[in-house]
Design a protein that fits this description.
- With 108 residues, the protein is an all-beta fold.
- It has one domain: Rieske [2Fe-2S] iron-sulphur domain (Rieske Iron-sulfur Protein, 3-layer Sandwich), CATH 2.102.10.10.
- The chain has no helices and 11 strands.
- A hairpin with a 2-residue loop joins strand 2 and strand 3.
């Protein structure tokens, strides 16, 4: 296991998000008040691209059906605005660190 550079700090200003790919994993990086978090990048409801959603504080809102996830924990905090046939799963959380201007994620 090792950390892999996926972005630079300048690419993700405070209050913004960015989608990155690490191997076959889609990952969302969010900058909340200068601290970076990494969770799964596809909504666990129907695969919406979370990076195209909206970040409100620590919550990302999926652009497809408005499911919401806490970017600091990956936990589902609000169900989609459509009926669910199954429970909404939490997003995976990835270990992230910053070295200088580089943002790195632990590749397992």
């Amino acid at each position: 296991m090792s950390y892999v550079k996926v972005a630079e700090k300048s690419e993700i200003p405070v209050g913004e998000m960015k989608a990155v790919k690490l191997g076959d994993k889609d990952i969302l990086i969010a900058n909340v008040n200068g601290k970076y978090y990494a969770i799964g990048g596809k909504c666990t409801h129907r695969g919406g691209d979370l990076a195209k959603g909206k970040l409100e504080g620590t919550t990302v809102i999926c652009p497809r059906h408005k499911a919401q996830f806490d970017v600091t924990t990956g936990k589902s905090v609000a169900k989609p605005k459509v009926p669910l046939s199954q429970p909404l799963k939490d997003e995976p959380v990835y270990k992230i660190k910053v070295e200088g201007e580089d943002i790195l994620i632990l590749q397992e």
